[in-house]
């Protein structure tokens, strides 16, 4: 198990107190057993877990949240909450199932989004490669390869508990070789006020934003605009010289970080109708 003390601010081990729009975990998972895994608990024979957040490094007593593969049907990756340890099946509550897998040996990317303001959790998963020995993971931060949205649930049972640990767990007993792979583990905190040196710009912003069909028109002398969705994923970059259209085709809220040549910047929250 690792300590979340290595994570940069504004990440907060008390997730509900994180001063941000969202906390986003992304990573890869795979194992090479062709069949449903019985569970991650001590009474089971096969199971794997990525521990998103835990109150202790001792997983036999910790409270927290994880992505596991193992347990009752269907065969999938699932977001779970555990109370009093993940080593006993009765301590584990499934919050959201991922997509059902036809073969458990696939190379998968997982994304979990927690929104502190609402204590909501969103689960996304993606099959990067089929169930072959010479496959490979894709970069889970690359969203040009679309994720499948599994669902959303509100849960605050442990979000006000200090959970200062993360890591990985592999349950196995038997004579056959069984491996667990994970890669590209990332935790990002996305906040709308993350820019620096912007106070004077907020008072007299040297730009104008006008809603237009399919996006936003920005007028300013010279700037770089980075477009983020509300999960903190970059949607595009636009270089502006006097005027440019920021193309956003999907309705919803977005954040625009407008960076000026003198290193000053500002973040604008916009709604695309």
Q: Would you count the extended β strands for me? A: 16
Please mark out the parts with pLDDT under 50 across 5 or more consecutive residues, or reply none: 193-202
Mean pLDDT: 86
CATH superfamily caption of the largest domain: Exo-inulinase, domain 1
What would you call the structural class? mainly beta
- Which descriptor suits the 3D outline? elongated
Q: What's the domain count?
A: 2
What is the CATH C level class of the largest domain, in words? Mainly Beta
Q: Helix fraction?
A: under 10%
Estimated radius of gyration: 21 Å
Give me the side-by-side strand order of the main sheet: 1-10-3-4-5-6
Span of the ends, CA to CA = 44 Å
Strand content: over 45%
CATH architecture of the largest domain: Sandwich
Please give a handful of descriptors for the protein shown:
single chain; 273 residues; mainly beta; Jelly Rolls; Immunoglobulin-like; 2 domains; six-stranded antiparallel sheet; five-stranded antiparallel sheet; elongated
Short recap of the structure:
This protein is mainly beta and 273 residues long.
Q: What would you say this structure looks like, in words?
A:
The chain has one helix at residues 199-203; strands at residues 2-3, 22-31, 46-54, 64-69, 78-82, 92-97, 107-115, 120-129, 148-154, 165-172, 180-190, 207-212, 215-229, 234-247, 252-259, 265-272. It has 273 residues and is mainly beta. The radius of gyration is 21 Å and the shape is elongated. Strand 15 and strand 16 form a beta hairpin. It folds into two domains: 2-190, Sandwich (Jelly Rolls); 199-272, Immunoglobulin-like (Sandwich).
């Amino acid at each position: 198990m690792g300590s979340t003390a290595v994570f940069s601010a504004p990440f907060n081990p008390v997730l509900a107190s994180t001063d941000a729009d969202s906390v986003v975990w992304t990573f890869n998972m795979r194992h090479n057993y062709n069949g449903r895994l019985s569970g991650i608990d001590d009474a089971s024979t096969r199971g794997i877990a990525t521990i998103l957040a835990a109150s202790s490094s001792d997983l036999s007593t910790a409270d927290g949240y994880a992505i596991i593969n193992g347990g009752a049907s269907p065969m999938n990756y699932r977001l779970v909450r555990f109370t009093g340890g993940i080593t006993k099946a009765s301590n584990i509550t499934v919050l959201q199932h991922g997509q059902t897998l036809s073969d458990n040996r696939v190379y998968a990317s997982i994304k979990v989004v927690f929104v502190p303001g609402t204590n909501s959790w969103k689960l996304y998963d993606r099959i990067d490669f089929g169930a072959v020995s010479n496959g490979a993971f894709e970069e889970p931060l690359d969203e040009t390869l679309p994720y499948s949205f599994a669902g959303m649930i509100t849960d605050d049972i442990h979000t006000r508990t200090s959970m200062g640990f993360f890591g990985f767990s592999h349950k196995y007993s038997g004579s056959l070789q069984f491996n667990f792979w994970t890669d590209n583990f990332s935790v990002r905190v996305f906040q709308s006020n993350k820019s620096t040196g912007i106070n004077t710009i907020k008072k007299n912003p040297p730009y104008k934003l006008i809603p237009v069909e399919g996006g936003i028109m920005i007028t300013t002398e010279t700037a770089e605009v980075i477009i983020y969705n509300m999960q903190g994923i970059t949607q595009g970059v636009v270089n502006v010289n006097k005027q440019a259209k920021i193309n956003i085709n999907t309705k919803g809220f977005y954040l625009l970080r407008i960076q000026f040549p003198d290193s000053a910047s500002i973040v604008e929250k916009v709604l695309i109708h």
